Amino acid sequence: MNMNINKKIETEQKLKLVCGKNHWQIDDINGYIPTITFSDGPLGVRKPYVLDGYGDGTAYPSIAYPSFQILANTWNLDLAERMGEALATDCVEKNIDILLAPGVNIKKHPLNGRNFEYFSEDPLLSGLFGYKYILGLQNNGVGACLKHFCANNLEYNRLQQSSEVDEITLKEIYYKPFKIACKAQPISIMCSYNKINSVYASENKIGFDYLRKECGFKGFIVSDWEAVRDRTKSLNAGLDLEMPFNKDSYEKLLKDYEEGKVNEESLNNSVNNILSAVENLQNLKSKHKNISLTQRLATAYDIACEGMVLLKNNNILPIINGSRISLFGCFAKATSNMLSGGGAAEVTWLDKQFNLEKLLTERGGYTVNYNQTFSLINSQNMLNVFETAEANDVSVICVGTGDKIEYESNDRETLKLPKIQERAIKAISKKSKKTVVIVFAGSPIDMSKWIDCVDAVIYSGFCGQEGGEALVDILSGVVNPSGKTSETFPISDEDIKYLEEQIDVDKTFYKDGILVGYRYYQTNQIKCMFPFGYGLSYSAFRYYNLRMIILNNEINLFFNVENQSNYDGKEIVQVYIKPIVCATLPHIKQLKKFQKKSISAHNSEIFNLILNIEDFIYYNSDTRSWKTEDGVYAVEIGSNCEFVNLSAKILLQNEKFEQIKE
């Protein structure tokens, strides 16, 4: 695209173009380019009825998909692509050109109130899910906006807080998911609110240069809404577009331009980046293929089925057909806000009710006695509750958080559930023959006070509007659970004190470096409630017969996994690498490959995963480059990061691999 207008108007139009038009649209420069409209909605489109504000509570109804933590718990990248494809149709129906998603920020701190919008504590898992989500969205005609760049890992004081991060940690952990996701060439990337090493993200030239030069990003960089402090500084640093339109900011930019403070080359680069992206958007639109409402709801259901995690099961699940169930808790008949986090990701559900009592009766074939018993904040009359629990075969207790506890601009105060919920679990479980707890939350929960009192726990997360159907199918055995945790579950608040100690009034010091999540627990041999990559199944799997073939300097891992049960199931295998004899590299175990496969009952499948030299590189801050280090490495294959089912050793020398026979 070339702007064919006279220079005086051209300059004015350029300055308008880089400042937005209103709350949700780019300036069309008097019809010269198509109107481009943004929308929130990583988990479902949140288009306000009126485009002159955030539209809190006044958005058009849309399909509510499971949250990103549930999507990541599937470990199924095809589902990420399907979710992007489905959301593209949701966007097209609402005339949305760019969806403000996906978010690939690392879950450094489990109390971050926005963690439900992000994939994982692991940069590889986060980046790959972001990559596939973008592919799905853009291959079906709608632009993606990858966010929030960068090191936005808490909501506390997010408008002023500075994330103090060393170069190695930035490159290996916090930049990495953006680099992986950029391979899908998102139309845009959004900067975060916070500072990075005392520089506002909207003025972070070092970071913007990284996106352009190292990640190969070709789209435009947009501010988070109202994240710009100084439009001239941010423009000169490489921020292409400020959103939403801010009259004062625009007028100051005009004045600065007249005074020669605006870098002409930066302005032209930003204009070209926006115009090129708009042109690419028009090309994307020709790719759109409508996905029916039924198909989109099926995608939401499939994600919920594969993303719920069975955390404990003392042979009580699936519940025997015809059982009498005592159902407790307000989350069993939940409103949509109870099953989602708050803020930009909250969705006004389509006409859909979450009613486990009805679904258990109709789909599960059970006799159900429902008693709300407790809400988030208070208990109801407990009369007859214990009698109900004693009289029936199984008690199912529904607990959780919702948008009053997990929401944008706020961090959780504790890993614990509200006290009334913990008390209810302990009291009811004492009277019940068998007890199942279902947890609806967007991040890890402290279960230490009650998990030993119950027979089974299902982590349903923020499961979206099809989550009820998925949950009942898991409880009844129609679906075999296959989700695994995409983040570590600490035992209690005591285990995350080290993270709290990093937070000052206006700075967060990333003293843990690359020891984020499971890396911290594994390296320091600290016990957690549930490790990264953990999840049970109704099937039992056996790993055996590891073979390693080095061909063309690639390590081909072949091994068998047998399903030893009567249930068809899906297993997620994980491959980790750990330096064990290296001159300088610490012995830190890191995820490098994973694969999910269906394995029918009493059968086995061969898994084949390939490691290459890229899986062994690390960032060297002295040379400011990616390198390998000669030495001996352990290759560990497991059903989660703690449990090693199979292992081997590799010698790496001069970027060549050799298996060490034992």
Task: Write structural notes for this entry.
Helix 3 packs antiparallel against helix 11 (293-307) and helix 13 crosses helix 14 (419-431). The protein folds into three domains: 7-285, Alpha-Beta Barrel (TIM Barrel); 303-523, Rossmann fold, CATH 3.40.50.1700; 541-660, Immunoglobulins (Immunoglobulin-like). Residues 1-6 have low confidence and may be disordered. The strands form six sheets. The protein has a six-stranded mixed β-sheet with strand order 1-2-3-4-6-9, sandwiched between helices. A six-stranded mixed β-sheet has the order 10-15-14-13-11-12, sandwiched between helices. The chain has 662 residues and is α/β, with parallel strands linked by helices.
Q: Which word captures the global form?
A: globular
Number of helices: 17
Strand content: 15-25%
Class based on secondary structure composition and strand pairing? alpha/beta
Terminal Cα separation, in Å? 62 Å
Unreliably modeled segments: 1-6
Main sheet: which strands, in order across? 1-2-3-4-6-9
Please report the total strand number as a whole number: 26
Rg over CA atoms: 25 Å
CATH architect. name of the largest domain? Alpha-Beta Barrel
**Structurally, how many domains make up the residues?**
3
Q: Helix content range of the residues, please?
A: 25-40%
Report the mean per-residue pLDDT as an integer: 95
Q: Look up the CATH topology of the largest domain.
A: TIM Barrel
Biggest sheet record = 6 strands, mixed
**Highest CATH level, the class of the largest domain:** Alpha Beta
CATH superfamily of the largest domain, please? Glycoside hydrolase, family 3, N-terminal domain
